[in-house]
Amino acid sequence: MMIKKTHIYIFIIFNILFCINKNQIDYKSIIQKSSHCPIDILSPALTENKLKKLINKRNLVRNQINNMNRENRDFLLIPVVFHNLHRENERSFCDYISGFGANGNYGAENNQEICTERALYALEILNEQFLSSGIQFIPHTEHPIMREITNQEYNHIASSNFNQIKQLYNFPNVLNIYLDYCIGSNTQECGSVSGMSTYPWSLDLNAPGIAITHSSFPGLNENKIAILPHEIGHYFSLLHINGIWFFNPDVPRELVNGDECELRGDLICDTPGQPGYGGGNSFFTNIYNDERICIYQGFNGSYNPDIQNLQIGGSNHDQIIGSYTYSNQDDNGDFWGTYNLPSYCFNENQEDFATNCNIENYENLPHAINFLQTVIVSQYCGRRGYHEYDPGEGYTTEQFENIRYSAETDYTGCINENSDNYSETYLINNLQTCLFSGYYSGDINQDNIVDISDITLLINYIWELIIFSELEFQLADANLTENINVADIVMIINYIIYN
Ligand SMILES: [Zn+2]
Asked: CATH number of the domain at 1-264+393-440, please?
Protein backbone atom coordinates (compact mmCIF):
# COMPACT_ATOMS: atom_id res chain seq x y z
CA MET A 1 0.00 0.00 0.00
CA MET A 2 2.83 2.35 0.96
CA ILE A 3 4.57 1.71 -2.34
CA LYS A 4 1.43 2.49 -4.26
CA LYS A 5 0.94 5.81 -2.44
CA THR A 6 4.54 6.83 -3.06
CA HIS A 7 4.06 6.18 -6.74
CA ILE A 8 1.02 8.41 -6.79
CA TYR A 9 2.84 11.28 -5.08
CA ILE A 10 5.81 11.03 -7.41
CA PHE A 11 3.45 11.06 -10.34
CA ILE A 12 1.62 14.15 -9.09
CA ILE A 13 4.85 16.00 -8.32
CA PHE A 14 6.13 15.05 -11.74
CA ASN A 15 2.99 16.45 -13.31
CA ILE A 16 3.20 19.73 -11.45
CA LEU A 17 6.91 20.18 -12.20
CA PHE A 18 6.41 19.24 -15.80
CA CYS A 19 3.64 21.77 -16.10
CA ILE A 20 5.86 24.51 -14.67
CA ASN A 21 8.93 23.67 -16.72
CA LYS A 22 7.01 23.42 -19.92
CA ASN A 23 5.97 26.99 -19.89
CA GLN A 24 6.93 29.04 -16.89
CA ILE A 25 5.39 32.31 -18.04
CA ASP A 26 2.10 30.82 -19.12
CA TYR A 27 1.86 28.97 -15.85
CA LYS A 28 2.31 32.19 -13.89
CA SER A 29 -0.31 34.00 -15.87
CA ILE A 30 -2.76 31.17 -15.30
CA ILE A 31 -2.08 31.34 -11.57
CA GLN A 32 -2.86 35.04 -11.55
CA LYS A 33 -6.10 34.58 -13.39
CA SER A 34 -7.48 31.64 -11.52
CA SER A 35 -5.94 31.92 -8.09
CA HIS A 36 -9.36 31.58 -6.50
CA CYS A 37 -9.87 28.09 -7.82
CA PRO A 38 -6.73 26.57 -9.27
CA ILE A 39 -8.38 23.34 -10.41
CA ASP A 40 -7.00 23.41 -13.93
CA ILE A 41 -3.46 23.76 -12.64
CA LEU A 42 -3.81 21.16 -9.93
CA SER A 43 -5.44 18.53 -12.08
CA PRO A 44 -3.46 16.61 -14.64
CA ALA A 45 -4.42 17.68 -18.16
CA LEU A 46 -7.27 15.81 -19.78
CA THR A 47 -5.65 13.10 -21.86
CA GLU A 48 -6.96 12.53 -25.36
CA ASN A 49 -8.83 9.47 -24.23
CA LYS A 50 -10.42 11.13 -21.20
CA LEU A 51 -11.38 14.18 -23.21
CA LYS A 52 -13.06 11.93 -25.76
CA LYS A 53 -15.00 10.22 -22.99
CA LEU A 54 -16.05 13.56 -21.53
CA ILE A 55 -17.26 14.84 -24.92
CA ASN A 56 -19.25 11.62 -25.39
CA LYS A 57 -20.88 12.00 -22.01
CA ARG A 58 -21.79 15.62 -22.71
CA ASN A 59 -23.38 14.56 -26.02
CA LEU A 60 -25.32 11.82 -24.32
CA VAL A 61 -26.66 14.24 -21.71
CA ARG A 62 -27.54 16.83 -24.38
CA ASN A 63 -29.53 14.24 -26.30
CA GLN A 64 -31.31 13.10 -23.14
CA ILE A 65 -32.47 16.54 -22.06
CA ASN A 66 -35.33 16.82 -24.52
CA ASN A 67 -36.65 13.32 -23.85
CA MET A 68 -36.45 13.64 -20.13
CA ASN A 69 -39.14 14.40 -17.62
CA ARG A 70 -37.11 16.55 -15.28
CA GLU A 71 -40.14 17.47 -13.20
CA ASN A 72 -40.96 13.90 -12.29
CA ARG A 73 -37.77 12.20 -11.33
CA ASP A 74 -36.41 11.00 -8.06
CA PHE A 75 -33.73 12.86 -6.19
CA LEU A 76 -30.26 11.45 -5.90
CA LEU A 77 -29.33 11.89 -2.24
CA ILE A 78 -25.63 12.41 -1.61
CA PRO A 79 -24.29 12.14 1.94
CA VAL A 80 -21.89 14.92 2.93
CA VAL A 81 -19.31 15.25 5.69
CA PHE A 82 -17.57 18.57 6.38
CA HIS A 83 -14.15 18.24 7.99
CA ASN A 84 -13.11 20.99 10.39
CA LEU A 85 -9.32 20.68 10.12
CA HIS A 86 -7.31 22.87 12.46
CA ARG A 87 -4.51 22.91 15.02
CA GLU A 88 -5.27 22.54 18.69
CA ASN A 89 -6.76 25.80 20.03
CA GLU A 90 -6.24 27.51 16.70
CA ARG A 91 -8.80 28.79 14.19
CA SER A 92 -11.55 26.20 14.44
CA PHE A 93 -14.28 26.78 11.86
CA CYS A 94 -16.78 26.90 14.74
CA ASP A 95 -14.93 30.01 16.01
CA TYR A 96 -14.79 31.87 12.70
CA ILE A 97 -16.28 35.37 12.99
CA SER A 98 -15.10 37.42 10.01
CA GLY A 99 -12.17 38.36 7.81
CA PHE A 100 -9.93 36.38 5.49
CA GLY A 101 -7.12 33.88 5.86
CA ALA A 102 -4.50 34.57 8.51
CA ASN A 103 -6.18 37.91 9.25
CA GLY A 104 -9.52 36.37 10.08
CA ASN A 105 -11.18 37.01 13.45
CA TYR A 106 -11.80 33.95 15.61
CA GLY A 107 -13.26 33.19 19.02
CA ALA A 108 -11.90 30.41 21.24
CA GLU A 109 -14.87 28.29 22.29
CA ASN A 110 -14.75 25.69 19.53
CA ASN A 111 -18.44 25.13 20.11
CA GLN A 112 -19.39 22.11 18.00
CA GLU A 113 -23.04 23.11 17.98
CA ILE A 114 -22.20 26.25 16.04
CA CYS A 115 -20.30 24.12 13.53
CA THR A 116 -23.24 21.77 13.12
CA GLU A 117 -25.65 24.67 12.70
CA ARG A 118 -23.45 26.23 10.02
CA ALA A 119 -23.11 22.91 8.21
CA LEU A 120 -26.85 22.30 8.15
CA TYR A 121 -27.50 25.83 6.92
CA ALA A 122 -24.98 25.27 4.12
CA LEU A 123 -26.84 22.09 3.11
CA GLU A 124 -30.08 24.07 3.02
CA ILE A 125 -28.49 26.62 0.67
CA LEU A 126 -26.90 23.92 -1.50
CA ASN A 127 -30.14 21.98 -1.77
CA GLU A 128 -31.92 25.02 -3.18
CA GLN A 129 -29.03 25.73 -5.51
CA PHE A 130 -28.93 22.15 -6.85
CA LEU A 131 -32.69 21.44 -6.85
CA SER A 132 -32.91 21.49 -10.66
CA SER A 133 -30.15 18.91 -10.97
CA GLY A 134 -32.23 16.38 -9.05
CA ILE A 135 -29.48 16.15 -6.46
CA GLN A 136 -29.89 16.77 -2.74
CA PHE A 137 -27.20 16.72 -0.10
CA ILE A 138 -27.88 14.99 3.21
CA PRO A 139 -25.99 14.34 6.45
CA HIS A 140 -24.62 10.81 6.66
CA THR A 141 -26.50 8.67 9.13
CA GLU A 142 -23.34 7.28 10.75
CA HIS A 143 -20.93 10.22 10.57
CA PRO A 144 -21.27 13.67 12.11
CA ILE A 145 -22.15 16.38 9.60
CA MET A 146 -19.14 18.36 10.86
CA ARG A 147 -16.18 16.24 11.85
CA GLU A 148 -13.68 17.80 14.23
CA ILE A 149 -10.03 17.11 13.30
CA THR A 150 -7.05 18.56 15.13
CA ASN A 151 -3.67 17.86 13.61
CA GLN A 152 -0.55 19.84 14.49
CA GLU A 153 1.21 18.71 11.34
CA TYR A 154 -0.73 20.91 8.96
CA ASN A 155 -0.67 24.67 9.24
CA HIS A 156 -3.36 24.73 6.58
CA ILE A 157 -4.48 22.90 3.45
CA ALA A 158 -2.38 23.43 0.34
CA SER A 159 -2.42 21.74 -3.02
CA SER A 160 0.79 20.00 -1.99
CA ASN A 161 -0.67 18.32 1.08
CA PHE A 162 -4.35 18.04 0.19
CA ASN A 163 -4.10 14.56 -1.24
CA GLN A 164 -2.31 13.35 1.86
CA ILE A 165 -5.00 14.89 4.07
CA LYS A 166 -7.77 13.29 2.04
CA GLN A 167 -6.05 9.89 2.23
CA LEU A 168 -5.93 10.26 6.00
CA TYR A 169 -9.44 11.50 6.66
CA ASN A 170 -11.79 10.80 3.74
CA PHE A 171 -14.84 8.79 4.70
CA PRO A 172 -15.81 6.31 2.02
CA ASN A 173 -19.10 6.80 0.19
CA VAL A 174 -19.62 10.44 1.12
CA LEU A 175 -18.80 13.79 -0.41
CA ASN A 176 -15.87 14.93 1.76
CA ILE A 177 -15.53 18.72 2.11
CA TYR A 178 -12.58 20.14 4.05
CA LEU A 179 -12.65 23.53 5.76
CA ASP A 180 -9.58 25.58 6.64
CA TYR A 181 -8.77 29.19 7.39
CA CYS A 182 -6.68 29.34 4.25
CA ILE A 183 -5.77 27.26 1.21
CA GLY A 184 -2.32 27.39 -0.34
CA SER A 185 -1.95 26.64 -4.04
CA ASN A 186 1.24 24.94 -5.18
CA THR A 187 3.22 26.53 -2.37
CA GLN A 188 2.40 26.30 1.31
CA GLU A 189 1.76 30.02 1.41
CA CYS A 190 -1.61 31.31 2.46
CA GLY A 191 -2.81 32.74 -0.84
CA SER A 192 -6.02 33.98 -2.39
CA VAL A 193 -7.41 30.55 -3.18
CA SER A 194 -10.93 30.25 -1.81
CA GLY A 195 -11.73 26.72 -2.86
CA MET A 196 -10.51 23.71 -4.78
CA SER A 197 -11.83 20.39 -5.94
CA THR A 198 -10.90 17.27 -7.83
CA TYR A 199 -12.30 16.47 -11.27
CA PRO A 200 -13.83 13.01 -11.72
CA TRP A 201 -11.32 12.07 -14.45
CA SER A 202 -8.34 12.56 -12.15
CA LEU A 203 -9.54 10.25 -9.41
CA ASP A 204 -7.03 7.62 -10.42
CA LEU A 205 -4.41 10.10 -9.15
CA ASN A 206 -6.26 12.05 -6.47
CA ALA A 207 -8.56 11.04 -3.68
CA PRO A 208 -11.86 12.84 -4.29
CA GLY A 209 -12.61 15.90 -2.21
CA ILE A 210 -13.30 19.59 -1.97
CA ALA A 211 -11.59 22.24 0.14
CA ILE A 212 -13.07 25.63 0.98
CA THR A 213 -11.92 28.49 3.18
CA HIS A 214 -13.92 29.59 6.22
CA SER A 215 -14.57 33.01 4.69
CA SER A 216 -16.00 31.41 1.53
CA PHE A 217 -18.33 29.05 3.35
CA PRO A 218 -21.96 29.58 2.29
CA GLY A 219 -24.05 31.67 4.62
CA LEU A 220 -21.23 33.37 6.56
CA ASN A 221 -20.18 36.18 4.25
CA GLU A 222 -23.33 36.87 2.33
CA ASN A 223 -21.69 37.46 -1.01
CA LYS A 224 -19.96 34.14 -0.92
CA ILE A 225 -22.63 31.57 -1.57
CA ALA A 226 -21.26 30.80 -5.05
CA ILE A 227 -17.88 29.28 -4.14
CA LEU A 228 -19.08 25.94 -2.75
CA PRO A 229 -21.53 25.23 -5.62
CA HIS A 230 -18.71 26.26 -7.99
CA GLU A 231 -16.40 23.62 -6.49
CA ILE A 232 -19.16 21.02 -6.41
CA GLY A 233 -19.69 21.77 -10.11
CA HIS A 234 -16.04 20.84 -10.77
CA TYR A 235 -16.38 17.77 -8.58
CA PHE A 236 -19.21 16.69 -10.89
CA SER A 237 -17.26 17.35 -14.10
CA LEU A 238 -17.96 20.99 -15.03
CA LEU A 239 -15.14 23.08 -16.46
CA HIS A 240 -14.92 26.83 -15.97
CA ILE A 241 -17.43 28.54 -18.24
CA ASN A 242 -14.63 30.25 -20.22
CA GLY A 243 -13.07 26.89 -21.05
CA ILE A 244 -9.47 25.73 -20.83
CA TRP A 245 -8.17 26.78 -24.27
CA PHE A 246 -5.47 29.04 -22.83
CA PHE A 247 -3.48 26.04 -21.69
CA ASN A 248 -5.09 23.10 -23.45
CA PRO A 249 -5.10 23.45 -27.24
CA ASP A 250 -7.09 20.21 -27.56
CA VAL A 251 -10.15 22.13 -26.38
CA PRO A 252 -10.25 25.28 -28.54
CA ARG A 253 -12.13 28.37 -27.46
CA GLU A 254 -15.78 28.70 -28.35
CA LEU A 255 -17.24 30.44 -31.36
CA VAL A 256 -19.77 33.24 -31.01
CA ASN A 257 -22.24 31.43 -33.31
CA GLY A 258 -22.10 28.31 -31.13
CA ASP A 259 -20.81 26.03 -33.90
CA GLU A 260 -18.96 23.00 -32.54
CA CYS A 261 -19.96 23.96 -29.01
CA GLU A 262 -19.75 20.26 -28.13
CA LEU A 263 -16.00 20.30 -28.81
CA ARG A 264 -15.08 23.78 -27.64
CA GLY A 265 -14.88 25.90 -24.49
CA ASP A 266 -16.63 24.26 -21.55
CA LEU A 267 -18.12 21.58 -23.88
CA ILE A 268 -21.55 22.82 -22.84
CA CYS A 269 -23.80 24.30 -25.53
CA ASP A 270 -26.21 26.49 -23.56
CA THR A 271 -23.45 28.69 -22.12
CA PRO A 272 -22.42 31.19 -24.83
CA GLY A 273 -18.70 31.71 -25.41
CA GLN A 274 -16.77 34.56 -23.84
CA PRO A 275 -13.23 35.93 -24.10
CA GLY A 276 -11.63 33.60 -21.58
CA TYR A 277 -10.34 36.16 -19.15
CA GLY A 278 -13.19 37.48 -17.04
CA GLY A 279 -11.51 40.62 -15.73
CA GLY A 280 -10.44 43.77 -17.47
CA ASN A 281 -13.96 45.21 -17.19
CA SER A 282 -15.38 42.68 -19.63
CA PHE A 283 -18.43 42.53 -17.37
CA PHE A 284 -20.50 45.40 -16.01
CA THR A 285 -20.94 44.63 -12.31
CA ASN A 286 -21.89 47.96 -10.73
CA ILE A 287 -24.68 48.65 -8.28
CA TYR A 288 -27.54 50.66 -9.76
CA ASN A 289 -30.61 51.65 -7.71
CA ASP A 290 -29.46 49.39 -4.86
CA GLU A 291 -29.23 46.43 -7.18
CA ARG A 292 -26.14 44.70 -8.53
CA ILE A 293 -26.30 44.68 -12.33
CA CYS A 294 -24.28 41.93 -14.03
CA ILE A 295 -23.97 42.19 -17.81
CA TYR A 296 -21.32 41.18 -20.32
CA GLN A 297 -19.95 44.21 -22.15
CA GLY A 298 -16.60 43.04 -23.57
CA PHE A 299 -13.23 44.66 -22.88
CA ASN A 300 -13.71 48.43 -22.82
CA GLY A 301 -17.40 48.01 -23.53
CA SER A 302 -20.02 50.19 -21.90
CA TYR A 303 -23.39 49.57 -20.36
CA ASN A 304 -25.70 52.41 -19.37
CA PRO A 305 -28.28 51.17 -16.83
CA ASP A 306 -30.33 54.41 -17.09
CA ILE A 307 -31.35 53.69 -20.66
CA GLN A 308 -30.34 50.02 -20.70
CA ASN A 309 -28.06 50.57 -23.63
CA LEU A 310 -25.15 48.23 -24.28
CA GLN A 311 -22.10 48.95 -26.39
CA ILE A 312 -19.89 45.88 -26.71
CA GLY A 313 -16.15 46.58 -26.71
CA GLY A 314 -14.54 46.78 -30.16
CA SER A 315 -11.61 45.35 -32.05
CA ASN A 316 -9.01 47.72 -30.60
CA HIS A 317 -9.23 46.41 -27.08
CA ASP A 318 -7.44 43.10 -26.80
CA GLN A 319 -6.16 42.26 -23.32
CA ILE A 320 -2.71 40.74 -23.21
CA ILE A 321 -1.81 38.78 -20.11
CA GLY A 322 1.42 36.81 -20.10
CA SER A 323 1.63 35.27 -23.53
CA TYR A 324 -2.11 35.09 -24.07
CA THR A 325 -4.24 37.52 -25.97
CA TYR A 326 -7.85 37.78 -24.89
CA SER A 327 -9.93 39.38 -27.56
CA ASN A 328 -13.44 40.74 -27.95
CA GLN A 329 -13.65 38.60 -31.09
CA ASP A 330 -13.56 34.86 -31.69
CA ASP A 331 -11.56 33.00 -34.36
CA ASN A 332 -14.17 33.96 -36.98
CA GLY A 333 -13.85 37.64 -36.10
CA ASP A 334 -17.32 37.71 -34.50
CA PHE A 335 -17.77 39.75 -31.32
CA TRP A 336 -18.68 37.75 -28.19
CA GLY A 337 -22.33 38.09 -27.29
CA THR A 338 -23.55 39.24 -30.71
CA TYR A 339 -24.97 36.01 -32.11
CA ASN A 340 -28.38 36.72 -33.75
CA LEU A 341 -28.08 40.41 -32.93
CA PRO A 342 -30.09 42.52 -35.46
CA SER A 343 -27.78 44.07 -38.04
CA TYR A 344 -28.85 47.62 -37.12
CA CYS A 345 -27.22 47.14 -33.71
CA PHE A 346 -23.73 46.83 -35.20
CA ASN A 347 -21.58 49.94 -35.62
CA GLU A 348 -20.05 50.73 -38.96
CA ASN A 349 -16.71 51.42 -37.33
CA GLN A 350 -16.14 48.62 -34.81
CA GLU A 351 -12.76 49.63 -33.47
CA ASP A 352 -13.91 51.23 -30.25
CA PHE A 353 -17.39 49.74 -29.82
CA ALA A 354 -18.65 46.87 -31.95
CA THR A 355 -22.31 47.47 -31.22
CA ASN A 356 -24.72 50.04 -29.84
CA CYS A 357 -28.23 48.89 -28.94
CA ASN A 358 -30.81 48.37 -26.23
CA ILE A 359 -30.07 45.35 -24.04
CA GLU A 360 -33.28 43.64 -25.21
CA ASN A 361 -31.71 42.95 -28.59
CA TYR A 362 -28.86 40.86 -27.21
CA GLU A 363 -30.19 37.32 -26.88
CA ASN A 364 -26.88 35.50 -26.60
CA LEU A 365 -24.72 37.41 -24.17
CA PRO A 366 -22.28 35.37 -22.06
CA HIS A 367 -23.96 34.45 -18.77
CA ALA A 368 -22.70 36.99 -16.27
CA ILE A 369 -24.38 35.07 -13.48
CA ASN A 370 -23.23 31.48 -13.32
CA PHE A 371 -21.45 29.49 -10.63
CA LEU A 372 -18.70 28.51 -13.08
CA GLN A 373 -18.07 32.12 -14.08
CA THR A 374 -14.59 33.48 -13.31
CA VAL A 375 -14.05 34.71 -9.77
CA ILE A 376 -13.80 38.34 -10.75
CA VAL A 377 -17.38 38.17 -11.91
CA SER A 378 -18.78 35.61 -9.50
CA GLN A 379 -17.59 37.46 -6.42
CA TYR A 380 -19.99 40.25 -7.41
CA CYS A 381 -22.67 38.32 -9.22
CA GLY A 382 -22.75 34.93 -7.54
CA ARG A 383 -25.53 35.46 -4.97
CA ARG A 384 -27.63 32.92 -6.75
CA GLY A 385 -29.97 30.06 -6.10
CA TYR A 386 -31.05 30.78 -2.54
CA HIS A 387 -34.32 32.49 -1.75
CA GLU A 388 -32.83 34.99 0.69
CA TYR A 389 -30.57 36.43 -1.97
CA ASP A 390 -31.36 35.73 -5.59
CA PRO A 391 -33.65 32.77 -6.21
CA GLY A 392 -32.61 32.46 -9.88
CA GLU A 393 -30.64 29.47 -11.08
CA GLY A 394 -26.85 29.48 -10.91
CA TYR A 395 -26.44 26.78 -13.54
CA THR A 396 -27.96 26.21 -16.97
CA THR A 397 -30.04 23.15 -17.83
CA GLU A 398 -27.10 21.45 -19.52
CA GLN A 399 -24.83 22.16 -16.60
CA PHE A 400 -27.40 20.80 -14.14
CA GLU A 401 -27.90 17.66 -16.20
CA ASN A 402 -24.17 17.04 -16.51
CA ILE A 403 -23.85 17.34 -12.74
CA ARG A 404 -26.53 14.72 -12.20
CA TYR A 405 -25.06 12.49 -14.88
CA SER A 406 -21.58 12.70 -13.39
CA ALA A 407 -22.95 11.92 -9.93
CA GLU A 408 -24.68 8.88 -11.36
CA THR A 409 -21.83 7.57 -13.49
CA ASP A 410 -18.48 8.86 -12.24
CA TYR A 411 -19.37 8.27 -8.63
CA THR A 412 -21.39 5.12 -8.62
CA GLY A 413 -18.96 2.57 -7.44
CA CYS A 414 -16.89 2.16 -10.59
CA ILE A 415 -19.23 -0.52 -11.84
CA ASN A 416 -20.83 1.69 -14.45
CA GLU A 417 -18.88 1.35 -17.67
CA ASN A 418 -19.39 5.03 -18.50
CA SER A 419 -17.64 6.00 -15.28
CA ASP A 420 -14.15 7.43 -15.49
CA ASN A 421 -13.34 5.18 -12.61
CA TYR A 422 -14.73 2.08 -14.18
CA SER A 423 -12.56 -0.78 -13.22
CA GLU A 424 -13.33 -4.32 -12.29
CA THR A 425 -10.44 -4.34 -9.89
CA TYR A 426 -11.45 -1.17 -8.06
CA LEU A 427 -14.18 -3.03 -6.27
CA ILE A 428 -11.66 -5.39 -4.78
CA ASN A 429 -8.63 -3.14 -4.31
CA ASN A 430 -9.83 0.32 -3.77
CA LEU A 431 -13.34 0.67 -2.56
CA GLN A 432 -12.60 4.13 -1.14
CA THR A 433 -11.83 5.48 -4.58
CA CYS A 434 -15.02 3.93 -5.78
CA LEU A 435 -16.97 6.63 -4.00
CA PHE A 436 -20.59 6.75 -3.12
CA SER A 437 -23.48 5.11 -4.80
CA GLY A 438 -25.80 7.80 -3.51
CA TYR A 439 -29.37 7.02 -2.58
CA TYR A 440 -32.43 7.52 -4.74
CA SER A 441 -35.39 9.07 -3.05
CA GLY A 442 -38.25 6.58 -3.07
CA ASP A 443 -35.90 3.60 -3.02
CA ILE A 444 -36.72 2.89 0.61
CA ASN A 445 -35.45 -0.69 0.60
CA GLN A 446 -32.30 0.43 -1.29
CA ASP A 447 -32.42 -2.26 -3.96
CA ASN A 448 -31.63 0.33 -6.66
CA ILE A 449 -35.11 0.31 -8.08
CA VAL A 450 -38.14 2.33 -7.07
CA ASP A 451 -41.14 0.04 -7.30
CA ILE A 452 -44.30 -1.22 -5.62
CA SER A 453 -42.32 -2.81 -2.79
CA ASP A 454 -41.17 0.67 -1.73
CA ILE A 455 -44.75 1.93 -1.80
CA THR A 456 -45.79 -1.02 0.35
CA LEU A 457 -43.18 -0.07 2.94
CA LEU A 458 -44.38 3.51 2.86
CA ILE A 459 -48.01 2.51 3.42
CA ASN A 460 -47.00 0.22 6.25
CA TYR A 461 -45.10 3.10 7.83
CA ILE A 462 -48.09 5.46 7.55
CA TRP A 463 -50.27 2.77 9.14
CA GLU A 464 -47.68 2.54 11.91
CA LEU A 465 -47.03 -1.12 11.22
CA ILE A 466 -43.28 -0.56 10.87
CA ILE A 467 -40.75 2.06 11.89
CA PHE A 468 -38.09 3.60 9.63
CA SER A 469 -34.40 4.14 10.23
CA GLU A 470 -33.17 7.69 9.70
CA LEU A 471 -32.03 6.83 6.17
CA GLU A 472 -35.26 5.03 5.28
CA PHE A 473 -37.17 8.07 6.48
CA GLN A 474 -35.10 10.34 4.22
CA LEU A 475 -35.65 8.07 1.25
CA ALA A 476 -39.39 7.86 1.93
CA ASP A 477 -39.69 11.64 2.20
CA ALA A 478 -39.76 11.96 -1.58
CA ASN A 479 -41.02 15.55 -1.65
CA LEU A 480 -38.45 16.71 0.93
CA THR A 481 -40.99 18.14 3.38
CA GLU A 482 -39.51 16.30 6.40
CA ASN A 483 -42.92 14.74 6.73
CA ILE A 484 -44.15 11.43 5.38
CA ASN A 485 -47.69 11.25 4.04
CA VAL A 486 -49.84 10.55 0.98
CA ALA A 487 -48.05 13.26 -1.02
CA ASP A 488 -44.88 11.15 -0.89
CA ILE A 489 -46.78 8.12 -2.19
CA VAL A 490 -48.07 10.21 -5.12
CA MET A 491 -44.57 11.42 -5.86
CA ILE A 492 -43.09 7.92 -5.80
CA ILE A 493 -45.87 6.65 -8.08
CA ASN A 494 -44.86 9.45 -10.45
CA TYR A 495 -41.24 8.27 -10.42
CA ILE A 496 -42.44 4.79 -11.36
CA ILE A 497 -44.70 6.06 -14.14
CA TYR A 498 -42.26 8.50 -15.69
CA ASN A 499 -39.03 6.55 -15.44
ZN1 LIG B 1 -13.07 26.71 -10.41
From this structure: 3.40.390
